[in-house]
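[job 4471] stage=fold_predict status=RUNNING
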Amino acid sequence: MKFLFKSTCYFLLSVCAMGWKASYAAEDFSVWKDSFYQEAIHAGISKDILDKYVPRMTFLPRVIKLDMSKPEYLQNFFDYTRVRVSDHRIARGQKMLQKYKTWLKRVSDQYGVPPAYLVALWGMETNYGSYMGNVDMLNSLSTLAYHPRRRRFFTGELIAYFKILENEPSVAPEKGSWDGGFGNFQFMPTTFLAYAVDGDNNGRRDIVRNMPDAFSSAANYLSRMGWNKDEPWGREVVFPESPDWDQIHQYETKTVREWQKMGIYPKYIDAFPESELKTKAQLRMPMGISGPVFLTYPNFKIIMRWNKMELYALSVGILADILQNNMPRVEVPADFIPFKTTSIIRMQEELTKRGYDAGGADGKIGSKTRKAIRAFQKDNRMAQDGYPSIELLKKLECYDE
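[job 4471] inference complete, writing structure tokens
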């Protein structure tokens, strides 16, 4: 109980500190705006555009709250994919493939990105354009640029947004997501400047209202990142019953042929295609050995450059496979129980206490936490899948019923 109490106290102190900061934010934000004005001048933004928009910049406490919030439950593969690869999203995606068939083929031929991947990304980002965000872009970016947590990153995004306002005002968005993404594919302002294209050659790069522009811009980004049109994103695989854990580790890169020699085979086809055997692949077990296991290929890393969250990239790949090849969905077991974030924080604290460096106690299962789990599992003769199973949490006395 003492770990739960410590974590709860830490959370309450964080909330109180955040509220205290919000109470003086208005005055401090005004001082920051003067500083940003000078920085934007040095970045080449004209005084005319700054004088027009800087006085309108308003601090939004809700944006900081969203940026700092922690979920009650650990985000897991089954819950994540159940919502994002739903029957409704699959059905709408199939309709969108037909509705924009001509443009998608044209864009695919030009950039080498299959239509199903573009539609899957579109569905994941904005549910096919049905929700692109309703937060004032100027104010959300200003608030995040003001806040010290990611000030450098969002100052760059805010300056990029000013460049759009100045140079392409007809396509500059007023509304977007709270974290600065906008348009059908939720481009950040710097991404828009670097990769958005005029797909239908009408003289504008409109990724909010113009689907040819939106599709072309998304495909251009993926293509520039190195998308290989001749390879899939990866495959769900069958994991061996008695693996050699000294040889099999998540995220190590081996050829498909090498993984195959260790007893890993594709789940839905008889054998890996010959063309894939030399492909470099990584093993991913988002739910440990109790859940689905995947081999992911270089295209998967490109999806993760779009969004670095593993569950997001897996969902995009799975949705694209369903849309393109009518592959089955990953079913959620009836007896599945999600873990509370407090349990993960306590696990990280306990692992650290026992000499396993979990990289801090933030409630997120990153690479350091997985490495610490695997080391503990090995020392305790458990399956070394790097996943906080109920068995592991109970062994560490961290499981919340």
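[job 4471] summary: The radius of gyration is 23 Å.
[job 4471] exit 0
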